[in-house]
Amino acid sequence: MAKAIALFPIHVIIGIGHVTNETVCKMIAHTNAITPTKLAEYLIQKFHNFSVPIQKAKEKIVDKSRRLLSEENTKLESELKLFRSITVNILNTNENRIKIASYAIQQQSQFIVKINHEKLNVLQAKTRIATKFNLHQLKVAVIQLQEKLELQPILYLKNSELALEKIEKNSQIMDPINVLKRGFSITYSNGKAIKDVSQLEKGAAINTLLFNCTIESTITKIKE
């Protein structure tokens, strides 16, 4: 028995009850108790001592995880609010520009029509007092001028519509949401957009904003 205990690859503990003499097994064992009950108490205490720090570590990990999740959620909400604010501001600005351009086109068209009508009235007055010799030529000129006056506002309106479509298209292209949809992204460090490599350092945490998600990363290498 003593030889088996000595050669056993792990520690051996024994609890031989009702033995007053010291045995060889007790001498070579790692731990011995006077009774099996005392041995059980010894093991329970060891298990308790081992479980207490594990429980504390578990509570600490859970608390740290909750705080980290809360902080990251707060950062993400802040970034989303900022992104929405910027997007709404850009859209409102472009919408106001389109309204101003539309109003200007309307006013300019009315002004052109008015001026051309005045010119037409003047020309008609001249034709009434013109001689018969020039009456035919004046009528032809009036007809040509009428055709020109009828086409000019239409052409102006068409050109204005094309200009408005171009402005609207450019506004849609420059919309931050459409920019992100084309494969671009915005990377933040400590809540600020990264514009230069000097803002970065190895081991720092960064957030990359895509069209439909945010990616959290840790810098392992910086290559300029």
UniProtKB/TrEMBL annotation:
One of its GO terms (biological process) is DNA catabolic process. One of its GO terms (molecular function) is exodeoxyribonuclease VII activity. Transmembrane segments: none annotated. It comes from the Bacteria. Residues 2-216 form the Exonuclease VII large subunit C-terminal domain. InterPro entries: Exonuc_VII_L, Exonuc_VII_lsu_C. GO terms for cellular component: exodeoxyribonuclease VII complex. This is Exonuclease VII large subunit C-terminal domain-containing protein. It comes from Flavobacterium caseinilyticum.
